[in-house]
């Protein structure tokens, strides 16, 4: 039965069947080695008794009822648990560093403690690297290690110290006769003293003392990178790194645009304002046309949409396709069709091109200049963005029969242009000679204390602006 289940020996052309070679013999098939993932699935042994006692105590503490605890009791409990976390992380780092020195991970078929931590305890790559780096740091800085063993040092603080006072810096200090124990004591006193927030500056000062020349000069731009990940719904995720000078330039540009875009009642977070400023920066340069030519064509936004979908003011999901292949709603295409140098290919019911960026759909320069004189900037109530940050918006969309005229043109910044295409409306009030803005529910946006004690709107006290040019005939 057992022999029948084995793989039969291979026969030669003459019919002779060779005897199988014993494992390890020359010419024998190599025995398959377990993969790191398989090795990591080895059933673990119970932890030592002292660690087991700690786990049992923490499990008991985790089940405590907190409903009747006072604020002071909750804070005291949090403070004690924070020390427990520091103790556990410091001890884990110490054990992992020792295990790395002894190549203990080889017992489980792994090459080091970083893959062991990932395979056995589910740590991420950065988490595993941080634990090992902290353990090595505590070995070369015994004073700091003693404080960590008392639960007085967080994992983040160990990361700060290790990033600045690297093993190379410490070795340079040892070779130069620097009093490293004194430096170790200074770092520990900073962490456990009254000014732990100065840890970065203190460590940098020590590094400069040990090695005044610093690391060899490198190109500061060599570490720059920007990764834009396109999600399935067309949104983008950005991840990157800039050198000090480059980051300062980008921050200055974005902050200038974000500050200019602030208006009354702006509830956006700082992150949202920065993201809007980045899009606005792209809009400005695309509109100026000063970007490098790519394949004999200026950078542009292309959107393909069926004519009937573009004409639908209610919005059709996934009706338009951008140049990258991402599908967006018809509202996005309608907004893009308002202004800017945009390549549009509008298809009719037979899928034949009806219009490829017709010039009369764009607001010409003389009408835009007139709108800038009339509006002065974004006409959305409460916004004070200047004219150079605004798009020329068709109040009645071109596809709906709206004319490209001064009466049908309004200046809107990028943020409010988007909102007008998603429910908000603007309307020219000929009696008052100004624009009015309404929410999606139809209520008007009013600035200032414009209601009486009953909450009813006060009479409109707006006075008509004087004419731009006085009539000299009178």
Structure description:
The chain is of the alpha+beta class and 474 residues long. The protein folds into four domains: 80-210, no CATH class; 224-291, no CATH class; 300-362, no CATH class; 363-474, no CATH class. It contains 16 helices and eleven strands. The protein has helices at 36-40, 49-62, 71-101, 113-120, 125-140, 142-148, 155-164, 167-175, 180-192, 199-210, 244-260, 270-288, 307-311, 330-336, 365-375, 414-420; strands at residues 225-230, 236-241, 302-306, 320-322, 327-328, 343-347, 353-356, 390-394, 409-413, 425-429, 434-438. The strands form four sheets. It has a five-stranded mixed β-sheet. Strand 10 (425-429) and strand 11 (434-438) form a beta hairpin. Helix 4 (113-120) packs across helix 5 and helix 5 (125-140) crosses helix 7. The longest helix has 31 residues, at 71-101. The radius of gyration is 35 Å and the shape is elongated. It starts with 35 loop residues before the first helix and ends in a 36-residue tail after the last strand. 20% of the residues are buried. The model is unreliable at 1-7, 36-42, 340-348, 350-359, 448-458 and 461-474 (pLDDT under 50).
Question: What descriptive keywords fit this protein?
Answer:
474 residues, alpha+beta, 4 domains, 16 helices, elongated, HNH, endonuclease activity, HNH nuclease domain-containing protein, zinc ion binding, nucleic acid binding
